[in-house]
Amino acid sequence: MKDKNYVKLLRQASPYIHAHRGKTFVIAISGDAVLQSNFHSMVHDIALLQSLGMRTVVVHGARPQINKRLALSGIETSFEQHLRITGSEAMLCIKEAVGSTRLAIESQLSMGLPNSPMHGARIRVIGGNFVTAKPLGVRDGVDFQRTGEVRRIDSQAIKRQLDDNSIVLISPIGFSATGESFNLNYEDLAAQVAITLKAEKLILVSDSPGVMNKGSLLRTLSLPQLAELLETSKDVQQISLLGAAAHACQLGVERVHLVSYQQDGALLSELLTRDGSGTLISKDYGEIIRAATIEDVGGILELITPLEDQSVLVKRSRELLEAEIARFTVVVHPEGFIVGCAALYPTADKQIGEVACVATHTDFNGQGIGSRLFDQIEFQARLQRRSSLCVMTTQAAHWFLEKGFVRAEVTDLPANKQSMYNYQRNAGVFYKAI
Q1: Which parts of the sequence belong to the N-acetyltransferase domain (predicted)?
Q2: Does residue 121 surpass a pLDDT of 50?
Q3: How far apart are CA 209 and CA 337, in angstroms?
Q4: 28-56: average pLDDT
Q5: Over 90: is that where the pLDDT of 63 sits?
Q6: Residue 153: is it exposed, middle or buried by C-beta count within 10 angstroms (0-12/13-18/19+)?
């Protein structure tokens, strides 16, 4: 990569670095992730986030390590309600597997070889009895024995370590007041840690690139949409991940991200770039629809320039956009970047408003952003006491027809729009009564 590309990437990441500095992130890493050949790269990325001022808690799983240790010992366990029933003998194996997994993570975080990304990092990894657990008990007639659930998180002790610029590493074993230890579900544990710490983000790292629907990655999900997926999903791992995400969102965690350990740099891409790499889950749609301001000009230009280059939209200079910014409405992603825009222009006929510059970021197509944006434009037109809308488009005719527009002629346009019509562009004319 050329130096100028490095500079460009750093500049693009800087707003996210500023926004995330001092914020608390809980990162849940599956046991499978630890076994991957590229796990060291993920550790480097976690170390980088820490060095950029993000307060980091890592909660790890150990399922494949536990399964291997149980198999070596000839111990069989069963599952109920997606949870392992943990007997006393199995608990001994679980302690060994969790302990070795924890040490593997700590050793990676402790690297400092010259010419490596960890050189000079001097990261402190802190663990302890931060999690008080209790037995899950008997559920629907099933005794879960040494399988437990979180009773209390010592948030103040964790925060003291974060204040001291340490990474807190939490394993999926909790201890009771009587000195017993319990096997915990790491996804549920991570969600509870994030809730108790009032973390800004919970990041769930698994083998999936995010939430998939019919082979396509869903970039954003609202809590109601997540609930629908949970009702229909039959994938045990997905149910566990999405259940933890839903629980965290419901109880105050602002954002939950799902990313893949199989994609190199997925963690950094999700947190420090506009497009991200996985799925962002929030309590509502997350996107904010609002009037554009002068600060949005750069984001709008970035959104519409590719469409202008393809002649989908009429070219607008920065100066023209700045002069007309009051006409624009934008859709702002939860991470702060613009994913949609549209404008409502007056015409020579006071009863008619012109819809223009309707654009949605390609990564968010099919998620209803354009429809919600158009609903807002139509609402504004009604407030302005307009009785109809017109639009000129070269490639979105069917979309506008679906919104209730009908085909019209150039001669049907208001006088000022007729005089400006570009016959070489040959855009279709459409009208809608409102």
Answers
A1: 287-428
A2: yes
A3: 21
A4: 93
A5: yes
A6: buried
CATH of 288-433, one of 3.30.1050.10, 3.40.50.300, 3.40.630.30, 3.90.1150.10: 3.40.630.30
What is the 8-class DSSP label of residue 52? Answer: T
Q: How many CB atoms lie within 10 A of CB 262?
A: 15
Task: Determine the pLDDT at residue 113.
Answer: 47
Kindly report which listed range (79-83, 133-137, 291-295, 317-321) carries the lowest average pLDDT score.
79-83
Is residue 291 within 8 A of residue 239, CB to CB? The reply is no
Exposure on the CB side of residue 5, measured as CA atoms within 13 A: 2
Contacts of 194 (CB under 8 A, 6+ apart): 26, 57, 201, 202, 248, 253
Task: Spell out a b/e string for 358-376, using b for 16 or more CB atoms within 10 Å of the CB, else e.
Answer: bbbbeebeebebbeebbeb
Both structure tokens of 351: 């009863």
Full DSSP string of 359-424? EE-GGGTTSSHHHHHHHHHHHHHHHTT--EEEEEESS-HHHHHHTT-EEE-GGGS-HHHHHH--TT
How many alpha carbons fall within 13 Å on the CB side of residue 109? 23
Residue range(s) in the chain whose domain bears CATH number 3.40.1160.10: 3-282
Mean pLDDT of 255-275: 90
Q: Residue 172 — φ and ψ, nearest 5°? A: -80, 45
When pLDDT is averaged across residues 235-260 and rounded to a whole number, the result is 89
Please check whether residue 299 is in contact with residue 335, taking contact to mean a CB–CB distance below 8 angstroms.
Answer: no
| CATH H-level, domain 3-282: superfamily | Acetylglutamate kinase-like (3.40.1160.10)
Considering the chain, tell me which residue range(s) the CATH 3.40.630.30 domain(s) occupy: 288-433
